[in-house]
Amino acid sequence: MENLFVHAHQPRISDAARAATAPDSAFMENYRQALLASPKYCTRADCCSFFTFEEDEVSGSSSADALPAANDVLRRDLEAGAADLRIPRDTEPRLSGLEYPLLLFADLPPLPDNETLSCLLEEFHHVFVSSSPFLQSMSLPRSGAPPYLILPMALLGAAISTNPEHSQWVKKLWRATEALLVGVLEVDNSLARSSDYLHAATLLMAYGVLQAHGQVWRKTQAYSGYLAAPLHKMRLKDIGSNTGSAAQRLVDLHGRGNIGTLGFYFLVDVLRAIHFNTPPSLTAAELSLPISRGHDFRPLYKTLVVDHKPLPVALSSDGYLLLLIALLSDIVSASHGFGSLTVHPSLSHQQTCPDQQSFPTRPPGADEPLFWSDEPTGGSRNPRESLRQESLNSAYCNPLLPFSATQEYFRIKKNLEKALDAWSVSVGLSGGGDVADKPTVVDSTIIPILHFCRMLLEAGPSIYLLPAVVGYTPIGVSSDSQDPGASFQRNLRSLDVQRAGFSFNNAVLSSAWQILESIEADHHHTGVDSGQSTSVGGSGGVDGGFDPMSRSDSSSITPIWYPLIVFYAALVVWARLLEDSSRKSSGGDVIFIARKKVLGTFQIELEQMKPTWGCTERMVAIIKSLK
After folding, report:
1. Which of 102, 211, 323, 374 could serve as 382's disulfide partner, Cβ 3.0–4.6 Å?
2. Residues 6 or more apart from 266 whose CB is under 8 A from it?
3. Residues 261 and 320 both lie in one domain
4. Is there a contact between 87 and 81 (Cβ–Cβ < 8 Å)?
């Protein structure tokens, strides 16, 4: 569905070209010197450097601490201010040795020494980059990178490292990275339009999406906004063919150098939207970039969504993944846009009364059903609802039908279903997505996303509430929080599945099992039990060709989308098993044991994933607690 307002506020080419032009070097140097002119600030190069490694005379070890001299002044002033109650708290920054924005750097934790930092960067380049799509086309520097890019690469390197000594640096690097990215942007706002800063913020956002801590989620949401602004101002979502005026060529050249960044950001943003239950920041309607040599993303995506035909050209594995992620983004956007306005009886058993909404606009009480049912106690179906469902199934695109949110959602759903079928045919799968003994042109790690798309589309908007119902909420969020959604979350946790009204049909359940089977098959193929896992991306990036022999199973990690997909599949299976067991009058203990054994298969898959992200540990704990 084309959005008529996408280009309403697009910056002009001249504006984007002017933003892409770097300021004069003399101007930048004078600005930095003026910023550091305060006599309270220590300007010695051997002291106040972010990466100064001096040998400790006592221990003989080297350490790195951001702005050590200024930190000492700040701590002494703050301690004196805390001891003297006559000093107001708002005067504490004035007493410190730093002025804003350098005050943002005052409380940075110690950084790794040179040797450890090199190991973390090597881990990032050899393992994370080679195992993630789009990253190899980002041209991440191995040497000479600015500090604000070194830290997020080291952070991901520490997070995926198998060395126990590296795990101690994860939290410190997270604090240092998020503080540094905000601080350098305050010092020099032009960095927001540089490729290195876009790379750094995208990598930090990827780490945050894979965590389960409330503070990390809030920071990640903020960085999502930081990235959305330069992508819009620099017209990076509308990359041309590097032709036309000089200004157009400058903008296109800057954009083409960030195609890999845009693809990886698109993937991470969709995962963030699903994990945090928020709308995506970037939609397929906004994208226009080269997806392969001589072919643009937009006409190829139109072939799938509008024409419902297989792709006319062969793409790289990353190219097919980008189109599938775009379909997933539209599925999530449609659910958030129409979920609170629609009734959709064909999507599952979540029936609604004619005057009631299936998705609540207000927090329900503990004894109120989350979804209303139009089925009387005798089990007979509402004739009006049956007739309405038949009309939707037979003529979903009939222009003579009255316009409604339900009708529009159903039309989008049917379009996306046909688009998924066309994508399946394009990669060598059947229309139903059966992968058994079928050679495909995409990496096997991409296939679970296809089943995940079908599961979300068939289940409807209610599926996004399942994590909150089972208690999967960010760690560190107070139960008495005054956040507008906090009471809604508490009411959801007080409901069980039967009273909440969750009911998923056989198609949803089938997709959930296909997710588990495809991931199990991939783990078996790549030998997870021996400490190995899967990779995706190849060496070609978006423009390169797919090479099935390019996968390096000896030094790779689980794709970043696996934990979220398996967790949602486990919740769907659990809800369906719980619904089925409620219809049986005997054998409660046997059914409970069987349900725990079934959920154990999903738990095993999560526990086998490498590395163990923060969200993975939380998901395993939730599955263990399900009854």
Report:
1. 374
2. 282, 287, 322, 325, 326, 329
3. no
4. yes
Closest to 372 in 3D by CA, of 337, 393, 345, 335: 345
Rounded to whole angstroms, the Cα distance separating 255 from 158 reads 30
27 domain residue, yes or no: no
pLDDT band at 20 (very low <50, low <70, confident <90, very high): low
Helix, strand, or coil here: 55? strand
Instruction: With a cut of 50, say whether residue 533 has pLDDT above it.
Output: no
DSSP state string for 456-521: HHHH-GGGGGHHHHTT---BT--TT---TTHHHHHHHHT--HHHHT----HHHHHHHHHHHHHHHH
CA–CA distance, 106 with 68 (Å, rounded to integer): 8
Same domain, 180 and 317: no
Going from the C-alpha of 328 to that of each of 75, 103, 277, 335, the distances in angstroms are 49, 41, 14, 11
> How far is it, in rounded angstroms, from Cα 259 to Cα 242?
13
Q: Are residues 333 and 396 in the same domain?
A: yes
* DSSP secondary structure, 164-183, as one string: GGGGGGHHHHHHHHHHHHHH
For residue 325, count other CB atoms closer than 10 A to its CB. Answer: 25
Q: Tokens for 341?
A: 């306005």
User: 561 and 467 share a domain?
Assistant: yes
Cβ proximity of 272 and 264 under 8 Å: no
Dist CA 154 CA 168 (whole Å): 12
Can you tell me the distance from the alpha carbon of 1 to that of 484, in angstroms, rounded to the nearest whole number?
31
Show the domain range for 171: 13-21+114-282
Q: Is residue 201 part of a domain?
A: yes
Residue 293 lies in a domain: no
Do 257 and 340 lie in one domain? The reply is no
Helices (H), 234-340: 246-256, 259-276, 297-305, 317-338
410 Cβ partners below 8 Å, 6+ apart?
344, 346, 392, 396
Per-residue confidence band for 351, with pLDDT thresholds at 50, 70 and 90: very low
For residue 423 the two structure tokens come to: 């994508």
Decide if 560 contacts 531 (C-beta within 8 A): no
With contact defined as beta carbons under 8 Å apart, do 266 and 333 qualify?
Answer: no
Least confident of 171-175, 414-418, 518-522: 518-522
Averaged pLDDT, 202-225: 92
Total domains present in the chain:
2
379 by Cβ neighbours in 10 Å (0-12 / 13-18 / 19+) ranks as exposed
The pLDDT confidence band at residue 73, using thresholds 50, 70 and 90, is very low
Contact 621, 218 (CB under 8 A): no
